[in-house]
């Protein structure tokens, strides 16, 4: 299926499917509020039928913006946005801890054969202006399948430490808050995904039972308000993310269906890890956006047809 890609320079990249639905808007202009951790985000993300499957600046967490790369605890800085968790004191408004991710440009940008593939160069900047890390971020929109009612977004990160000391990656759980290990690539769903159904290759379970577990993929399906329709999102790891000989650190699912719908590929759920000066790490992820309430067999069959 053909894609139409528009680029409003300095602001965003938008992808529209052949049927006329804008399925992805990737916004890279700096947010106005530094407390929300200025960084690029994808919103709105839509199914081919036009159902919105991301939330933006919800009243409970204004810094939740669609699909974003985040780091909630990084050597004392917060590249997530909003309040910072301090053990024994809870969540505190500490603006001096909130960093940002600066868009430096696109080093690759191609549209061909029904695919958009771009590489974005970013710099992670601590609150007081020090450049801490350099990121090469890859986004690829592909496998737009009108018959299946689905399309795929691949999101990769290659991050290099620019400091003269290690970067320590953690989460609220590594800082002492139980089962709150959010960090890494994070999705915030719209309100109508609240209370949705979550499942993995081996389990139909409440989101609470899947919190902190591991696995190659996790699916989240919900019924929309207003429209008589369901949508399904599938979050999938590239094989090397879960390969202990290649991954820098074990990944776990951060997932909630209530009180807010959210999923993160957490790279530091239970334990901190360090990135030495000059060293790099890399992860690849896939998000399948589908119309309908898919079951486990349909998810597994669709993923099997999308080679990495």
TrEMBL record:
<dbReference type="InterPro" id="IPR029475">
    <property type="entry name" value="DUF6807"/>
</dbReference>
<protein>
    <submittedName>
        <fullName>Oxidoreductase</fullName>
    </submittedName>
</protein>
<dbReference type="Pfam" id="PF14100">
    <property type="entry name" value="DUF6807"/>
</dbReference>
């Amino acid at each position: 299926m053909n894609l139409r890609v528009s680029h409003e320079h300095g602001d965003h990249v938008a992808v529209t499917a052949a049927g006329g639905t804008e399925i992805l808007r990737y916004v890279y202009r700096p947010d106005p509020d530094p407390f929300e951790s200025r960084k690029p985000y994808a919103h709105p993300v839509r199914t081919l039928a036009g159902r919105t499957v991301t939330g933006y600046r919800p009243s409970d967490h204004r810094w939740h913006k669609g699909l974003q790369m985040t780091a909630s605890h990084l050597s004392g800085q917060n590249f997530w946005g909003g309040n910072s968790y301090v053990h024994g004191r809870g969540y505190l408004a500490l603006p001096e801890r909130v960093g940002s991710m600066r868009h430096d440009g696109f080093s690759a940008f191609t549209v061909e054969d029904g695919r958009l593939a771009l590489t974005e160069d970013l710099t992670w900047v601590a609150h007081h202006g020090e450049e801490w890390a350099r990121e090469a971020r890859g986004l690829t929109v592909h496998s737009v399948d009108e018959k299946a009612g689905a399309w795929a977004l691949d999101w990769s990160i290659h991050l290099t430490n620019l400091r003269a000391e290690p970067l320590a990656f953690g989460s609220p759980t590594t800082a002492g808050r139980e089962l709150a290990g959010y960090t890494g690539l994070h999705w915030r769903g719209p309100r109508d995904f609240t209370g949705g159904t979550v499942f993995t290759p081996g389990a139909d379970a409440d989101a609470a039972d899947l919190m902190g577990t591991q696995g190659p993929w996790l699916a989240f399906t919900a019924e929309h308000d207003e429209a008589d329709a369901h949508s399904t999102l599938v979050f999938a790891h590239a094989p090397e993310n879960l390969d202990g000989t290649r991954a820098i650190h074990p990944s776990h699912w951060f997932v909630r269906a209530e009180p807010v719908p959210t999923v993160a590929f957490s790279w530091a759920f239970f334990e901190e890890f360090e990135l030495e000066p000059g060293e790099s790490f890399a992860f690849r992820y896939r998000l399948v956006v589908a119309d309908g309430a898919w079951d486990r067999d349909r998810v597994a069959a669709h993923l099997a047809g999308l080679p990495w």
